[in-house]
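Weekly sync, protein design subgroup
Attendees: M.S., D.O., the rotation student, P.L. (late)

Item 1: inverse folding check
M.S. brought a backbone from last month's batch and wanted to see whether the design step gives back something sensible before we order anything. D.O. pointed out we never logged the input encoding, so this time it goes straight into the notes. Structure tokens as presented (120 positions):
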């Protein structure tokens, strides 16, 4: 099977003689490595000649303010579900267990009432 609209490729690839498993692979051509790449070594995030200490401090202060603003925006509730989620986050483990216990007691009471009504 082949491509209906394509050109005919080279004849059968198995028609040419191959090499045996124990023969060496053909030599690979390698490119030459340049002796020096780039300029002098630099530290990642290191100071540039144009930055002064006051500019660095100002950049740090601005980054810290932006991070605080993002953190405060993430904590604000968004709508009804956001308010519910905030309430759930405020609950402690004991509060959560007490609420589950209260729900379970109500279920048992309603089951007992339904059973007594069905007894006649």
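Designed sequence read out in the meeting:
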């Amino acid at each position: 099977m082949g491509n209906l609209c394509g050109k005919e490729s080279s004849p059968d690839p198995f028609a040419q003689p191959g090499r045996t498993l124990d023969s060496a692979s053909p030599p690979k051509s390698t490119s030459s490595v340049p002796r020096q790449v780039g300029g002098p070594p630099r530290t990642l995030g290191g100071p540039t000649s144009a930055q002064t200490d006051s500019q660095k401090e100002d950049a740090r202060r601005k980054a810290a303010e932006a991070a605080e603003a993002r953190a405060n925006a993430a904590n604000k509730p968004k709508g009804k579900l956001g308010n519910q989620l905030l309430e759930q986050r405020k609950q402690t483990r004991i509060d959560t267990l007490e609420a589950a216990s209260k729900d379970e007691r109500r279920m048992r009471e309603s089951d007992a009432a339904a059973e007594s009504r069905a007894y006649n």
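Discussion: The radius of gyration is 37 Å. The chain has a mean pLDDT of 80.
Action: P.L. to compare against the previous round before Friday.
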